[in-house]
Amino acid sequence: MVKLYAGHQFIGWIGPPWLVERLAEFDLGLYASFIAVCQITIGFMLLTTRYKLLGGIMMIPMILNILMVTISQHWRGTPYVLAAFLAMDLYLLWQYRDFFWPLLEEGENGGKLRHRKPKSLQGHLTWLAGLGLQLLSVPASFLNLPLAFSLAGAGVIIGVLSFRIDLILRGKTARQSLN
After folding, report:
1. 120 CB-contact burial (10 Å; exposed 0-12 / middle 13-18 / buried 19+)
2. 1 lies in a domain?
3. 125-153: per-residue pLDDT in tens?
């Protein structure tokens, strides 16, 4: 978010906020913006945990792309941080290892797939609205910074609440089946 916010006025704890401008010198500004939007989307998937498996899978090529940029720019230290992120991501993916066997065996899973709680369409749409607010906060930062921060915060809260929507709908379905 810090890379795309007006004046880089967002909480930045990793990476240089001036990355987009620096890479624009090499005609890679659009690429840097694309990576930043991917970071926001993947980070939102992991932070809200609704799509942590998909986010974890998407994080591997993202980390490798960032690693290539940092190596080509001769940045020191960043590859170590990326290695730590990659290790954390691999740990997350290891927890979902049963989902990868059907991919490797082209559909056969031998009944090894663990059951996960179903997610509702309303929960998916709620999560998507949260992501939309997150992304909308970037252009809003150029107009009104407090509004942009409010949109980003509301987006995270709404994204996390998508699980609550699923829980409420599962409860209604269970009550209806009892009646």
Report:
1. middle
2. no
3. 999 999 999 999 999 999 999 999 999 99
